[in-house]
Amino acid sequence: MKIKILEKALFKSWSKDTCYQPMEEKWTPKNPAWGQCYITALIVNDYFGGKILKTKFEDGTGHFWNLVDNKEIDLTRSQFDENEIISKPTIHSRDEIENNPKYKKYNQKYLILKKRVQKFLSEHN
Fold first, then answer.
1. How does pLDDT run across 37-53, given as a tens digit for each residue?
2. Are 9 and 117 in contact (CB under 8 A)?
3. Is the Cβ–Cβ distance between 100 and 57 less than 8 Å?
């Protein structure tokens, strides 16, 4: 699997119902990556392994992306203005992130996205 194929599958699979709940009202098809970082980081981890990176913004919201073979992969970076400064992340294992009670409630959104991505990939194989 190439990362560009997974990126296309994710782009076609993101929607308001997979968006991080506090951000749902601002989700639009014009910015499909909006609020999708946590579950997208899990999907990338499903296919490529590695670690999950996390940072926090001044308003308290977080951003997640991946570290695979010492290379950062951020498939939801497009949700931000290109001038947005993303501070240095902390590195986490998948278990550490996925078992955090704050994020466990988003497992259903992850499962919805995972199913859509798998469907897209099977149809475009």
1. 999 999 999 999 999 99
2. yes
3. no
Give the separation between CA 34 and CA 37, rounded to whole angstroms.
Answer: 8
The Cβ of residue 122 has, within 10 Å, a number of other Cβ atoms equal to 9
**Can you give the residue ranges of every domain in the chain?**
3-123
- The pLDDT, as a whole number, for residue 120 is 96
Q: Per-residue pLDDT averaged across 55-75, rounded? A: 90
pLDDT in tens, 75-99: 999 998 888 778 899 999 999 888 8
Q: List, edge to edge, every strand of the sheet that includes 62-68.
A: 71-73, 62-68, 51-56, 90-92
Helix (H, G, I), strand (E, B) or coil at 69: coil
From residue 32, give the alpha-carbon distance in Å to each of 14, 39, 65, 107. Answer: 6, 13, 16, 19
Alpha-carbon gap, residue 11 to 117, rounded angstroms:
9
